[in-house]
Amino acid sequence: MPAVSLGHFVALSIVLFFMGAVGVLSRKNALIVLMSIELMLNAANLAIAAFARYWLQADGQVIVFFVIAIAAVEAAIGLAILVEIFRLRRSVDLEAMSSMRE
Amino acid sequence: MTYGALALIPLFPLLGALVNGAISLATSHREKAAGRRWVSLIGPLAPTLSFLVTLSAFLKLRLLPEEGRELTQTLFSWIAAGRLDVDLGFLFDPLSAAMLLFVTGVGALIHFYSIGYMGRDRGYARYFAYLNLFTFSMILLVLGDGLLPLFVGWEGVGLCSYLLIGFWHTDEEKAIAGNKAFIVNRIGDFGFLLGIFVLFWALSGGGASGLSYREIAAGSHHLPAGVVTAACLLLFIGAAGKSAQLPLYVWLPDAMAGPTPVSALIHAATMVTSGIYMVSRLSFLYAESALALTVVAVVGGLTALFAATIGMAQFDIKKVLAYSTVSQLGYMFLACGVGAFSAGMFHVVTHAFFKACLFLGAGSVIHALSGEQDIRRMGGLLKRIPVTGWTFLVAWLAIAGVFPFAGFFSKDEILAAAFFAENELLPWLPRALWALGVVTAACTAFYMTRLTGLVFLGRGRLDPDASAHVHESPRSMTIPLMILAAGSLLVGFLGVPEFLIAGGNRFHHWLAPAIAAHGGGERAAHPSAAAEWAVMLISLGAAIAGIVAGLHLYVRRPDLSARIGAALGGLYRLVANKYYVDEAYRAAIVRPVQAGSRVLLWRAIDVRVIDLLVNLVGILGRGASYVVRFAQTGYVQLYAAVLLIGVVILMWVLF
After folding, report:
1. Is B390 a residue whose pLDDT tops 70?
2. How many structural domains does chain A have?
3. What's the domain range around A60?
4. Which of B428, B423, B462, B509 lies closest to B62 in space, CA to CA?
């Protein structure tokens, strides 16, 4: 049976990335958007780790660690902002938050 | 040779102007000027110090040999732009010495006089600031070593003239008079600038030029005749504006709206004589163009007679003196036009003394009569304000041209020069101008006698209120009067003609190197002694005739003058209304310009075109924003979408 090649990993990564992108662009709930962002980051991580294993270089793995750390920080801050917004407006509905329109 | 102290001469008044200006700004909000004592000290001190330095420079100058009798000082390189390379420097030669001595001397006297005259005025500090600034500009004009420093001073005195004429600017009439002076001057200045451009363009062909007198003199011989004539005529337009000749004299009578010491200083002794100074300074250039000299002489002669006739019918004491000034300036140009530049300059000097004395005397009379200026409401003042009266009488005899007062010698020299001069273009012209000059001299004597008689002699026709308060002026005003009167008597002896006293006319000899230097010369006529005597006696006769007529008509038989005036009817009205020149200018020039400005420049161009262009910027901005607005939804996910699309495109382009 065919082995799991690099192509599969990259294809999966692409699919996951676009699923995340679609989620960021079209979901109403801000929390879901944040989760979609996480999904996009993880898709990228998958691709990097796959390539690192393929080229047998440790650089890629190190990058993955960086990205995980950054994603964690970003999630923390994003959630903190979201909590503040919720305190202010009592909702996390993105469609309602267009007060910066002209 | 170099003389470092020359820079001090303009420096003192400049500093005075700055200090007085600061005091004026600092105390303007208070009713009573607090710094009055300081102003009274610094204001007159500045020109006095300048006078002392001038005097020392003059004494130094005298010790130098006739060849190369000049003191110079170059301060710094002022403009270095392509072919224009000017250094700011000063030139103190016999001509500038003669001019500067009375500018600073008479100027200082007038500053002192102003302490008494303007003492109670709210703008006291501002007045002295302007007066000092004027003195600085005038000194710069005289002392500059080229056309450009002269022009800076030229503009400066024009500015200060405007500021001082309109000194009491809350009075609209006075403010308008200031405007008129500046605007008419500007017309002259336009011609002056064109003259400078012509000279620069002609002289800098080979290399660079700074338009210093030395450079102009050196280059003048190689210039084509047409260029020289053009430059001389254009520069003369400027002189006509500044020195109030036809047709640009109209600002001077209106300038009497300013304080009387201003009239004495600016419009009698100094600023208005700068035109003659400029022509004398460039005598070598004018000597190359017979046409230019002819124009100068004709304009001068005509102006002299024209203004004299107007002066005969005026009732405001200052207006009479104003037209008299225009007329006397005409004499000076007449002299220059026939090649007798030193005669013209001599009259400048004598005129400075007696005209300043007359104006300051008039100021004293106005002060004594609590503001009255109409001579029909004066009379019999000689006994009541004797110092003012007697000094005025001395100046009167000087201007009328009576021996041995100053005006006699200078006026006679001009008339003699005119009579014996030669003109290539119109051989009969000098004699015709001489005749004009003699008639004008008679008119001068006549109207000055009329003025003096109506003010100081005869019966008093004063307003009772004014009459009760008649008082002599304070010493700060009378002492300058006495000094000027003494000058009016004595200065004439500097120019006693050769045929009377051997080795005489020291003034002419003094100026000769400065005027003949660089190649320009004066007419070399050597008429017989008998002819000279005849001319002199005719001048004297004209003066005496004018005086006798004036005394008869205005002192002995005052009713006669009214009858003559009525008999002359229309002619009298024409003259009394100044030949309606102002009205003609208003109709022919002012109204059309104003109408054209309103309809064309304002409504058509300014509103329709320029405002449209400016508004267009706003309209475009608004239109663009209409379009772009749709991107601003405030909806974060839209922004994220756009971001994503952008990334995709970027990827595509790059890879």
Report:
1. yes
2. 1
3. 6-89
4. B509
